[in-house]
Design a protein that fits this description.
The protein has about 290 residues and is α/β, with parallel strands linked by helices. The chain is built from nine helices and ten strands. The site of zinc ion has 7 residues, from helix 4.
Length: about 290
């Protein structure tokens, strides 16, 4: 039995499951402050005999095993979680190996093992939700350098009709600052879900996402691109993204049929938690 946590800005999803990725039990806990959220997480896992736990956490986090602060959260706007040593806390509580990575890396791992990129040695998972982030599998492994990638904060060219200043507290009008859910709400004065009948919203959204995809394609050349997160529930975005990506790339690189290449998560909303189970499995294997 393995434990898994998908920690998002609004909720923690906790699950127990097995090495095949099968989820046996699953609960949700609101993300408030560690003193409130973590006891509930620990309570849930206390009901099971676990061999390892995998954690996919919203970034940035310290994933460098050589670092003294390995396994903690770093510069999050959710100040209660800043510097919180989640790996240490769980390891002390349960005495089992703990796998730790970003939520999007976990989702990429979930999708490549059991989802839309199953059988491939390369894919890119992007979430467009409260924030924008991406995890990449390259030659069978999660891409990591000094730390994990932060692909949501790249710079993009402005849409000619966009005068919105941008919402990223660090960069203003980076991709996340212009195209994540909170930026949509701020720019248009309503939540994405209530803007379904405004084509200009989704045209601008597609324009920004396609630019990001162009850069990811040119730099990483992934074999499959998976677009998840709340905003991507707006399925009408897909054709707009295909149109702009074709326009921007101008035939320079040859890609598969875009409707097969850029897809929704095969695991739906379970990509992250399934991937966290796979992080637990990896941690267990590394420990043996
Ligand atoms: P999180 O980022 O916390 O994991 P989500 O991926 O659901 O959660 O992202 C939440 C963001 O996505 C919010 O800004 C919300 O307004 C937006 N969102 C959620 N569902 C939809 C939808 N069906 N259509 C458009 N936007 C949505
Ligand atoms: Zn930014």
């Amino acid at each position: 039995m393995l434990g898994a946590i998908e920690a998002g800005g609004t909720k923690f999803v906790c699950a127990v499951g097995d090495k095949t990725g099968k989820i046996i039990e699953r609960i949700q806990i609101p993300t408030t402050v560690p003193e409130e959220t973590m006891p509930q997480v620990i309570d849930f896992f206390n009901g099971y005999q676990l061999e390892a736990i995998g954690v996919g956490f919203f970034g940035p986090i310290d994933v460098n095993m050589e670092s003294p602060s390995y396994g903690s959260i770093t510069s999050t706007p959710k100040t209660g979680w800043r510097d919180y040593p989640i790996v240490k806390t769980l390891a002390e509580e349960f005495g089992v190996p703990i796998g730790f990575n970003t939520d999007v890396n976990a989702a990429a791992l979930g999708e490549v093992t059991h989802g839309a990129a199953k059988g491939l040695d390369s894919c890119l998972y992007i979430t467009i939700g409260t924030g924008i982030g991406a995890g990449a599998i390259v030659q069978g492994n999660l891409l990591q350098g000094l730390s994990h990638p932060e692909m949501g904060h790249i710079l993009v060219r402005r849409h000619p009709q966009d005068e919105y200043q941008g919402k990223c507290p660090y960069h203003g009008d980076c991709l996340e600052g212009l195209a994540a859910g909170p930026a949509i709400e701020d720019r248009w004065g309503a939540k994405g879900i209530d803007l379904v009948d405004k084509p200009e919203v989704w045209d601008m959204q597609g324009y920004y996402i396609a630019q990001a995809l162009m850069q990811y394609v040119l730099i990483l050349s992934p074999k499959k691109i998976i677009l998840g997160g709340g905003v991507m529930h707006q399925k009408q975005l897909f054709p707009t993204i295909y149109k702009y990506l074709n326009e921007f790339l101008a035939g320079y690189v040859s890609l598969p049929e875009l409707s097969d290449y850029i897809v929704s998560p095969g695991l739906g909303d379970h990509a992250g938690i399934t991937g966290s189970l796979m992080l637990a499995k990896q941690a267990l294997q590394e420990n043996n």
